[in-house]
Amino acid sequence: MKTSKFIVKYFDLIRIISAVIIGFLLALVFLFFVSDDPLNAIKTFILGPFASKRRFFNVIELAIPLLFTSLGMCFMLKVGEFNLIVEGGFMLSGAVVAWLASTALPPGIPPVIFPALLIVVGALVGMACGLIPALLNIKWKANVVVVTIMLNYVLTFASTYILRYWMRDTSVTYLGSHKLAQNAKLHTLLRGTDLHTGIFIAIAAVLFTWWFLNRTTKGFEIRVTGNNRSFAKYVGINVASSMLLAQMIGGALAGVGGAVEILGKYDRFLWVNQTGYGFTGLMISVLALNQPAAIPFVALLFAYLQIGANIVGTTTDVPSEFVMVIQAIIILLVAATLFMESLRKRAVIKLSKVEGEVK
Amino acid sequence: MLEQFLTLDYLIAFLISVIRMSTPLIFCALGALIASHAGTINMALEGIMLMASLIAVVFSALTQSVIGGIAGALLGGLIISLLFVYLHLYKQSDLIITGLALNTFASGGTVYLLFLLTGDKGTSRLLQSLSVPNWHIPIIKDIPILGKILSGHNALTYIAFIAVFLTYILVFRSRLGLRIRAVGFNPNAAASVGISVKKIKLQAFLLSGLFASLGGAFMSMGYLSYFARDMMAGRGYIGIAATTLANGQSFGTLLASLGFGAANAASITLATLNLKADLVAMIPYLATVIGLVIVSARKLAKARKKGQVTD
Amino acid sequence: MEEQILLMDNITVIYPNGFAANKNVRLACNRGSIHALLGENGAGKTTLMKVLFGSITPTEGQIYLKGKPIQFRDSLDAIQHGVGMVHQHFMLVDELTVAENLVLGMEPKKRGLFDFDAAVKITDEIAKKYNFEIDARAIVGDCSVAVKQKLEILKALLRGAEILILDEPTAVLTPQEISELFVELKKLRDMNHTIVFISHKLNEVKSLCDSFTILRNGQVVDVGRIDDFTEQELSNLMVGRQVSFEISKDAPKSEGRELLRVQNLHYTNYEGKQLLKDVSFSLTDGRILGVAGVEGNGQNELSEIITGLRRFSKGDITIDGSSIKNRTVRQIRRLGVGSISEDRMTYGCAPNMSVRDNIIADRYFTGKYSKGIRLDIKAIQKDTNALIKQFDVACPSPDSMAGMLSGGNIQKIIAAREFSSDSKIIIANQPTRGIDVGSSEFIHSQLIKMTREKGASVLLISADLNELIKLSDSIIVMYNGEITAYFEDASKVTDVELGEYMLGVKKMSTEEIGRALQQ
Question: Does ipTM come in above 0.85?
Answer without folding.
Answer: yes
